Amino acid sequence: MKTKVFLVGGPDIDARLDLMRRLQDKFELSAVGSNPNLYDLFDKNGSNYYYYSFAQHINPLNDLIAIIKLINIFREEKPALVHTFGTKPCALARIAAGLANVPIIIGTITGLGMLYRKDGFKYAIIRFFYEILQKIASHFSDLTIFQNKDDRKKFISRGIVRAEKTAIIPGSCILTDKFNLSRFNAIERNQIREELSISQDSFVVTMVARIIRAKGVLDFCDTANALKEEGKFIFLLVGSEDEGKLDKLSPKEIEYIRNSVIWLKKRKDIDHILASSDLFAYPTNYGEGLPRALIEAGSMELPLVATDLPGCRAIIDGGVNGILIPPNNSAYLVQAIRCIAASKTMRQNFGEISRAKAISTFDIKHIIKKTEEVYMDLLENSLK
Question: Do the strands 287-288 and 111-113 form a parallel or antiparallel pair, or are they unpaired?
Fold first, then answer.
């Protein structure tokens, strides 16, 4: 019989489907998430799905209810290994798995958000409770996985987890075969430009992100307005509003976005959009693990500009495959875009190196291999 493994996350647990598909020959995989509309999706992919509810923000009663629900799921289904993802789900689910006596417990920290990027009393309180939860969760865990070395260093230095109980797996599953510019012929590369009536001689700068303040979307819009008079630049913003976040945008700021860039909201054809782009910008101020959109853009041979923060600098080598800029500074973004737009040779070199790095480091086959090795090592050690 295959070993029963449960993957636990939040509303976007379906982002782990590619991982589950490629591990299902070795393990019996199920998913647990906070989106009640995913039963059919996982059923079509041959996996069971279990639903629980949790609050995005501090809510002790709701958190306790979520932990009890997860304990009941784990006790009834008896997985041999529970692997949790995200911020709050990673803490709650590991605590629940520990209380349910799950033999192997793993947590993947997919980024630290604004926890260590914001000052003030509100964020100090959030950090306080977050670290308590993560310390308890790490106590129950066999391993805490990080997506970049900076987050790992922070957790160790703050005494949240012991170094010997950590590992790094660089990101989520990126399909470099899908995000491959050579898949697209000349007509397909211009598909989005024709759809949006963008001329062939325009220089298209694209950003894909959730529409919240911390992702730098307002800096992206400021840059678009600064370059508007130069005529050749077109700015595409792809992503939907995230109403549940503390730093959601005001109606006035949403209107500013609409007046500044071409806003495509949520799209499923990201590879086609990137194929029609000339540069990918990511001026985030968010504590990223490894931003998937940035890796996908690099895999499509686009030159990259992003903020010099953990996660982004794990993908971009400054001056090698892109340009790193200070956070909260649209003036530097303007300069970086002008610099790259002025040199076709630079764009080609940056793009080729980004593609090679995506294949060698971030492709799904590497993530699958490392994840499988972690599972097998921990399961074998548990039998000794």
Answer: antiparallel
Strand partners, 123: none
At 130-141, the pLDDT tens digits run: 889 899 999 999
Residue 231 has pLDDT above 90, yes or no: no
Q: Which residues contact 161 (CB under 8 A, 6 or more apart)?
A: 134, 135, 138, 141, 144, 155
Please say if the pLDDT value at position 382 is more than 90: no
State the helix-helix crossing angle for 251-260 and 217-227, rounded to 10 degrees.
40
How far apart CA 104 and CA 358 sit, in angstroms, is 31
Range name among 161-165, 292-296, 318-322, 380-384 with the lowest pLDDT average? 380-384
CB 7 within 8 A of CB 28: no
Pairing of strands 27-33, 104-109: unpaired
Angstrom distances, CA of residue 106 to CA of 256, 282, 357, 370: 42, 30, 27, 13
**Helices 330-341 and 217-227, packing angle to 10 deg:** 60
Summarised one tens digit per residue, pLDDT across range 277-316 is 999 999 999 878 899 999 999 999 999 999 999 899 999 9
Q: How far apart, in whole angstroms, are the C-alpha atoms of residue 333 and residue 326?
A: 9
pLDDT in tens, 12-67: 999 999 999 999 999 999 999 999 999 999 999 999 999 999 877 777 889 999 99
Task: Check if the beta carbon of residue 65 is closer than 8 Å to that of residue 53.
Answer: yes
